[in-house]
Specification:
Helix content is 36%, strand content 22%. By secondary structure, it is an alpha+beta fold. It has one domain (28-174): Beta Barrel (OB fold (Dihydrolipoamide Acetyltransferase, E2P)), CATH 2.40.50.90. A 5-stranded mixed beta barrel has the order 1-2-3-6-5. A two-stranded antiparallel ribbon has the order 4-7. Strand 1 (38-45) and strand 2 form a beta hairpin. The model is unreliable at 1-10 and 14-29 (pLDDT under 50).
Length: 175
């Protein structure tokens, strides 16, 4: 016997149901429908990780939302940001997907198994700058301000490493 809800769904146009299904898939991101966590397979740098998530055949590359860390070629800042993330990430995480970037990576907030927001932790500890051009969450800025005041991580010494986007721009112009 069909429930009232099931009967209503049968009368929905197929395009609407397809759209709803796609939205659920997008907002589920790298977390399985049963709430399973993703296995961290690689921490590439201070703001990019590779994950193996339940129910997905391939690994998922995640670019952490709202933050930008020095590039690996920006010694010693890039390695320090990567190593800090490696030290706090643990083996399993969940991801709240915000969007996809031009390289097809998931852009999202990454959380430890106990719910700690790793994007914010990178900023709070001075290993990431808030990427103002792409960050729509105001709660990141006060964390950056405190890290700057305390001269933590990338804020310990002045320089272009504090704005990785400017460093990348200089590198492109030099090429």
């Amino acid at each position: 016997m069909l429930t009232t809800t099931a009967l209503k769904l049968m009368n929905y146009p197929w395009k609407t149901l397809l759209s709803l299904s796609l939205m659920v898939a997008i907002f589920t991101g790298c977390e399985s429908a049963d709430g399973g966590q993703c296995l961290v397979t690689k921490v590439y740098d201070g703001d990019t990780v590779t994950l193996k998530c339940p129910g997905q055949a391939d690994v998922t590359k995640v670019r952490m939302y709202c933050i930008d860390t020095p590039e690996m070629k920006q010694a010693p800042w890039g390695e320090a940001a990567r190593d800090h993330l490696r030290g706090i990430i643990g083996k399993k995480v969940t991801v709240t997907e915000i969007s996809k970037d031009r390289y097809g990576r998931v852009v999202g907030e990454v959380f430890t198994s106990d719910g700690k927001n790793l994007n914010m932790e990178q900023v709070k500890n001075g290993y990431a700058a808030v990427y103002d051009s792409y960050c729509k969450k105001p709660e990141y800025k006060p964390l950056e301000k405190r890290a700057k005041s305390a001269k933590l991580g990338i804020w310990a010494k002045p320089g272009i490493h504090q704005t990785p986007w400017e460093w990348r721009k200089e590198q492109r112009e030099a090429d």
